[in-house]
Structure formats: C-alpha cells, structure tokens
Amino acid sequence: MKTIFAVVFLLITSPVCADDSNFSTHLFAKFQVKACTTCHYYFGANRDGLAFNSHKGRSVEMCVVCHQQSVSGFEHPEEWFAQSGLYTSGMDAKETCEATMNALHAKFKSKTLLKKQMEKHLSEDPRVLWGIEGATPKSGSLPSGKKEADLVKGGVNLWKEQVKAWIDGGMKCQ
Ligand code: HEC
Ligand code: HEC
Q: Which of 2, 25, 39, 116 has the fewest CB atoms within 10 Å distance of its CB?
C-alpha cells in the first residue's frame, strides 16, 4: 500500500507529468525574472522610471550613452530601450501570458503569423537573450561594471526547447 502511494505521489509531483504546452509550467517563472521585468517596468507610473531615482527623466536617446555596445553586447546598441504596456512583475501566469499576446496584437493575427513572430522574438530578440544567463557573453551586463543577478537560469537551449513546446502546443495562457 505504501509503495503504491509513493508511486502515485511521485507521478503527481514529477515534472515529467507537467504539461510543457502550458505557459505556467516553465515559462511563467522565467518571464518573471528581474532581468526581464525591470526593463518592462521602466516607465511604470509608480516607479518614476526605475526603482532608483538616478534613471528619472532619462530620454530614449540617452540609453545608449551608458548601455552602449560594449555593455549590452547588442549588434545594434539602440535596441536597448524600454516600453510601457508590456507584461510586468506581479502578474500571474495568465496575466503575463495575455499581456504578451496583447503586446504582439495577437487578436488581429492568424495563429501562423503569431507563432512565427513569437518564436522569433523569444529566440532571437537581443533584449530577451540579454536576460538569459549565458545566452551571450554580455547577458546581464549593465553600465558601471554592474550585473543583473536575476537572469533566466538553465541555459538558452533549454529556454528555446520550452518556448517551442509552448508555441507548438498552441500558446495556451494557462
Ligand atoms: C532592455 C529592455 C528589455 C529587456 C532586458 C527585456 N525586454 Fe522584453 N521588451 C522590451 C521592449 C522595449 C519591448 C517592446 C518592443 C518590442 O516588441 O521589441 C518588449 C517586448 C517583449 C515582449 C512582447 C513581444 C513584442 O514583440 O512586443 C515579450 C514577450 C518580451 N518582451 C519578453 C521578454 C523576456 C522574456 C525578457 C527576458 C528574458 C525580456 N523581454 C527582456 C524591452 C526589454
Ligand atoms: C547615465 C547612464 C545611464 C543611462 C543614460 C541609462 N542607464 Fe540604465 N542603467 C545605468 C546603470 C549604471 C545601471 C545599473 C543599475 C544601478 O545603477 O544599480 C542601469 C540599469 C538599468 C536597468 C536595470 C536592468 C536590470 O535588469 O537590473 C534598466 C532596465 C535600464 N538601466 C534601462 C535603461 C533605459 C531604458 C535607458 C534609456 C531610457 C537607460 N537605462 C539609460 C545607467 C544608465
């Protein structure tokens, strides 16, 4: 009896059983690391730019003065920028996923186009790769020799696998 119980318990809790096609299974936690959300929060009304006052009032044209190529490692340094209306920290899995869909104007696109754009964004966008530990030599790197510590862990290959499983599974927001 005890063994049966243990087996059932293992089956229920084992990650093997988790549905990779659900956003909540792997991606939600990864989308919520600080490396991603701090940037998405940049213009957050309640934060006055960033959490620290020094970023207040910095214009878009100024970003690359500090987040320059040698810092971000971006092929096109001007791609370091922030924008409101994206998913932010504190959202649950469903909200995070739905905000992502909105940012991509999913409602107005065929699934085929959406899938293509989602895959491209999540596996190639320099900002996303910057937020994944080890994805580029400059991932997590900030001006003044600082480093964002809360990056997506587990490596870029696992990330791409998990993104693909979710996209191929129909991009379910659950
Ligand atoms: C340097 C700031 C920055 C970082 C770091 C960043 N993002 Fe973004 N993100 C943006 C901006 C700006 C946009 C909107 C413009 C765009 O679509 O490229 C965006 C848009 C998105 C979108 C919506 C898709 C779209 O094309 O609009 C998703 C999904 C996303 N980011 C995920 C992430 C994830 C996951 C990470 C971390 C692994 C991350 N971002 C890191 C700035 C950033
Ligand atoms: C005068 C230099 C300077 C300018 C201009 C600047 N930054 Fe920064 N930024 C920094 C420094 C330094 C840090 C490291 C954080 C710290 O100081 O603790 C940082 C950190 C950040 C972070 C936090 C990243 C993380 O994951 O922890 C974001 C997001 C960010 N900057 C976005 C921007 C955006 C967007 C712009 C342009 C609108 C910009 N910065 C302009 C110097 C600058």
A: 2
Task: Say how many Å lie between the CA of residue 36 and the centre of ligand 1.
Answer: 7
d(CA 141, CA 124): 18
Atom of ligand 1 nearest to the CA of 103: 27
Contact predicate 37/88, CB 8 Å: yes
Distance 81 CA to ligand 1 centre (A): 9
Closest by CA position to 162, among listed 122, 124, 133:
122
In this predicted model, what pLDDT tens digit does every residue of 90-126 receive, in sequence order?
Answer: 899 999 999 999 999 999 999 999 999 999 999 999 9
Q: Identify whether the C-beta of residue 23 lies closer than 8 Å to the C-beta of residue 96.
A: yes
Nearest CA to ligand 1 atom 42: 82
The structure's pTM equals 0.90
List the one residue out of 96, 72, 71, 73 whose CA is nearest residue 86.
96
- Cα 161 to Cα 166: distance, rounded to the nearest angstrom: 9
Distance 132 CA to ligand 2 centre (A): 17
3-state secondary structure of 43: coil
Q: How many CB atoms lie within 10 A of CB 162?
A: 18
Cα separation, 150 vs 169, in Å, equals 28
Q: What is the pLDDT of residues 42-72, one digit of tens each?
A: 876 555 556 555 677 778 888 999 999 999 9
